[in-house]
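Fill in residues.
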């Protein structure tokens, strides 16, 4: 039996490292070792980033790789963070808790399916339609690790905060809001989007300086800022449409 080895095996192995990390995260989360679980979800994100970069560098991007990447993302950034929500808080609400904990996983799978259907090129995109599932996972994990188990959120408000995080990240993923992609470290990319670069590096420095405490607020800012920008763009497009309609009516009257 002859096994054919192609260039795509390298990025595909990195993608499998993604799902292995996600599976390992679930094992640790089951034992309520949330720190280790979060670390492996972060490791999955590293593999997820490396497989795409590697595929583009060696020109090995393929439809198989894209499908495999989505399947792995569904586990590492959908199921694992949802399971963390359940084990950290929602377990006490029975079936209702299972439902709310599963929302990010359900929304994440829908978002990935939509992404694959609309996929037309393997090149980097400036924007994503709907919040990327790794970003949603980071929002959930940073909330649980750095905020949920601290005194920063009073006990009466933890229910509101946890339910809100689950619902907000789920809605963000299935929305039509445009979310910025991570900026690539190139001169051209910096010239095209200098403001995004400044914000991105400010987030990294702030997160490191605060030992992770500012990650969750930064992710909330990412969701809110993207939503506000989308709203103003919608208002602008609606205004243009109304103006064009008025011009057509005036021409008809003449």
């Amino acid at each position: 039996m002859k096994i054919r080895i192609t260039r795509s095996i390298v990025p595909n192995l990195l993608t499998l490292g993604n799902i292995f990390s996600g599976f390992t995260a679930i094992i640790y989360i089951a034992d309520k070792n949330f720190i280790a679980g979060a670390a492996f979800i972060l490791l999955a994100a590293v593999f997820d980033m490396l497989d795409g970069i590697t595929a583009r560098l060696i020109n090995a991007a393929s439809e198989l790789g894209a499908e495999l990447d989505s399947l792995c993302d569904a586990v590492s950034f959908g199921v694992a963070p949802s399971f963390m929500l359940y084990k950290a808080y929602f377990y006490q609400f029975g079936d209702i808790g299972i439902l709310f904990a599963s929302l990010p996983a359900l929304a994440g799978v829908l978002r990935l399916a939509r992404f694959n259907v609309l996929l037309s090129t393997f090149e980097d995109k400036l924007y994503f339609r709907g919040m990327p599932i790794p970003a949603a996972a980071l929002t959930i994990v940073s909330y649980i690790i750095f905020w949920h188990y601290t005194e920063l959120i009073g006990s009466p408000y933890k229910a509101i905060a946890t339910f809100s995080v689950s619902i907000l990240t789920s809605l963000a993923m299935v929305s039509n809001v445009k979310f910025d992609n991570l900026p690539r470290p190139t001169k051209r990319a910096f010239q095209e989007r200098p403001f995004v670069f400044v914000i991105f590096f400010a987030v990294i420095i702030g997160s490191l300086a605060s030992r992770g405490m500012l990650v969750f607020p930064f992710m909330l800012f990412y969701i809110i800022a993207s939503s506000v920008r989308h709203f103003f763009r919608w208002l602008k497009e609606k205004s243009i449409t109304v103006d064009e309609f008025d011009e057509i009516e005036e021409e008809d009257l003449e």
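The domain at 9-182 is CATH 1.20.120 (Four Helix Bundle (Hemerythrin (Met), subunit A)).
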